[in-house]
Amino acid sequence: MTKTDIGERTIALDGPAGSGKSTVAKLVAEESGLPYLDTGAMYRAITFGVLKRGIDPTDWPAIDHALPTIDLELSATSVVVDGADATEAIRGAEVTANVSAVAANPRVRAELVELQRVWIDKSGGGVLEGRDIGTVVVPTAALKIFVTASVRERARRRALEIDANIDKVEADLLRRDKLDSEREESPLRPASDAVTLDTTEHTIAEVVAIVINLARDRGLLQ
Length: 222
Ligand code: DC
Hints:
52% of the residues lie in helices and 14% in strands. It is α/β, with parallel strands linked by helices and 222 residues long. Residues 17, 39-40, 43-44, 99-100, 103, 130-132, 176, 180 line the site of 2'-deoxycytidine-5'-monophosphate.
């Protein structure tokens, strides 16, 4: 199968943390019947493995050295790292605080992008969510969506979810946005041919409906 083929049945959903991208991606996958891949979970899983080994997340040579020893198993419902269930731990505060540093590492990115392409190839397309799906992982994706929302709204949603102070959450989101969009390797940015959808102004249901309609228009769905 060529890269063009994998793009033909692929919906790429990129955007910053808290934009509503995950919720939209899962619902689009459910409605379209296409398989779903959360690539952020993969970066989180590697971060979990790095922290468990006591490695400083900014120490790239140490991470490069350890990378081949970190064993990842991802299913639709669970994340297993080195044989132990890490589904909940990868969403915890420690991994969340360190994942942007690990995700900036070029070797980590190269390995995960390769795994993501193998996954698409095997599943014959899918709905992928991340930061660089439309720009790097599958530049030929038939539909690319960039999901955004104002930083205040993203902080409000996340603060509700984890029962935390909105100003603190906003400061952390701004810090992560900066790291993710200013890193040298595959920074967070919309692909030139992506459709940008702002969930501050639309409900999640409206955004899902827009994506499904676009997928139909592009022949991805009947
Ligand atoms: O979507 P998320 O919050 O679970 O992503 C966690 C981190 O991983 C975030 O800091 C950005 C990074 N990431 C990335 O660099 N590329 C992706 N395709 C997905 C996530």
